[in-house]
Amino acid sequence: MKLFMLLASAFALLSSSFASAATVEHTFNVQNKTINRLCNERVIVTVNGDFPGPNINVREGDTVIVHVVNKSPYNITIHWHGVFQLMSAWADGVEYITQCAIRPGNNYTYKFKVTQQEGTVWWHAHASVLRATVHGAFIIHPRSGDWYDGNIEDIYRQELAIGGKVPPNAFLINGFPETTKLNVRQGKTYLLRMVNAGLNSNLFFKIAHHKFTVVAVDGAYTEPYITDIIVLGAGQSADVLFTADQPIGSYYMATSAYVVGEPDEFLNNSTARGIIVYDGHHKTTTSPPLMPMLPPLHDTPTAHKFFNNINSLVGAPHWVPVPLEVDEHMFITININLKKCPLNATCRGPLNQKFSASMNNESFVLPVGKGFSIIEAFYHNVSGVYTTDFPDEPPKVFNFTNPKIFLDANVTFAPKSTKVKKLKFNSTVEVVYQNTAILNAQSHPMHLHGLNFHVLAQGFGIFDPIRDKLKYNLVNPQVRNTVGVPPGGWAVIRFQANNPGAWFVHCHVDDHNLWGLDTVFLVENGPTPSTSLPPPPTDLPKC
After folding, report:
1. pLDDT confidence of 306, banded at 50, 70, 90?
2. Of the four, 19, 157, 174, 421, which is 20 to 30 A from 182 by CA?
3. Mean pLDDT, rounded, for 256-279
4. Which percentage of the chain shows pLDDT scores above 70?
5. Residue 209 CB neighbour total at 10 angstroms
6. DSSP E strands: which ranges in 90-160?
């Protein structure tokens, strides 16, 4: 069967209305729909028949109620990516972590309050790989992709069976590879709310002859940053201003992949295009839209420049200073590994093995068949679902950026486990993410549920705890929920564990996520009822 759908990017203008009431209520009918892309009819899973799905617009302080009715043939959960879920961890929507799945023919209602944040985040399925087509924007107003040409579930079931990797057939802008069109008026400034909803692709984005001003990333305000290119890791979002300050005409907006460390057989070098059309422009066959010059596929310097030049806006709404005293230090290696091919099977990974992935040489396995999600086991003190011995540092120290380490089977083949890390309530945690070259150094967008973090520094090579600490920005570092760890490099984040619950930590490249590049931070209860995890909803789905 041919490949199906990986939506790379959903780019949306701030144009839809929002509810003014204190409660915003939606119904999500999750259902199959037949659509036409790349000249083929394909059956995809959608919400309310829309692809991308509906936008949710709220004000900070609103209560959100979403009734999910699963009319699809697949298990489903919905994750509210970037929403803090303060004291509502049960609503985070991660299969086997904060709930069991909503099974076909069943329904479940998510209810949570949006507090202490604003900006553009998003929602998406968090069961299997259904987020390829089940996703949409989640826009928090102040109080006052890529495409797989086939069935995505079948494609990934095959990928896991043979231990290989499947590249997308195309990239999309708002669900289409070519036809997205935005009409603008000369001299007017527009806000683009941008989300990279792709399963596996980091993205470059440009508009011919135009510049952008980045004003927020991952729903957190930034100092205005002027650039002619936007770079979004998988799962990242940005709020971007652009002014229609060019001569009346039509201009392509275009997106292409930023990929490092992938063999050529796994690459897609295509470009998705939409058109910016100025009011008053009359289309002629002799004046096609102007096309932007996109960077090469492997242009890490351009990506690093973008990521490294963003700072938070001190004093902005919901801004918090960097905590200076650190209680927990973690050094986490990010590895692409191998898993042994079953006897008499054919596997398509290197050395005819299966791909795997790990953090600190522990390849995470969801607790399938244990009867409980991790948060339920945590709340009810049930043993046998997970262990709390995720290591604070790699069990073996090696030359992390030397590709020859691949020859050491002790690091190339990582054991499977469901190990998590417990954190004291309100403790300050610093994590050094160290990329390794076990199986090619890649850029990994590392996402933390339930909490934002400060990105103190990013760099290349092996992190040096003396030299590289001098690079820490402790004044106005960018605030994110997803950080791109550079290929062959490192990133340092710091956060306060002030939200009790079970928070998934994972690479937002879905291949890597499925292979085991994950763990869970279990934040313990605080000293009072208001700082403790409340009881689970009575209708929480059962495993």
Report:
1. very high
2. 19
3. 80
4. 87
5. 15
6. 107-113, 119-125, 135-141, 146-147
Please name the residue that has the structure tokens 């939200």.
Answer: 499
* Contact between residue 82 and residue 138 where contact means Cβ atoms under 8 Å apart: yes
Please name every residue paired with 70 in a beta bridge, in sequence order, or none if there are none: 30
In the structure encoding, which two tokens stand for residue 243, read together? 């002014």
Look-up of token digits 């990333």? 217
Half-sphere exposure for 265 (CA within 13 Å, toward CB): 6
Cis omega (within 30 of 0) on the bond before 52? yes
By the 10 Å C-beta count (0-12 exposed, 13-18 middle, 19+ buried), 180 is classed as middle
Residue 492: helix, strand or coil by DSSP?
strand
Tokens 């938070």 correspond to what residue?
Answer: 312
Write phi, then psi, for 169 (nearest 5 degrees). Answer: -85, -25
Q: Answer yes or no: are the C-beta atoms of 347 and 366 closer than 8 Å.
A: no
Strands 40-47 and 56-59: what pairing?
A: unpaired
Distance CA 319, CA 516 (A): 33
Residue 506, beta-bridge partner list = 447, 518
Q: 359, 414 in Cβ contact below 8 A?
A: no
No. of helices (H) and no. of strands (E), the chain: 5, 33
Q: Give the predicted TM-score (pTM) of the model.
A: 0.88
Q: Give the integer Cα–Cα distance in Å for 79 and 208.
A: 34
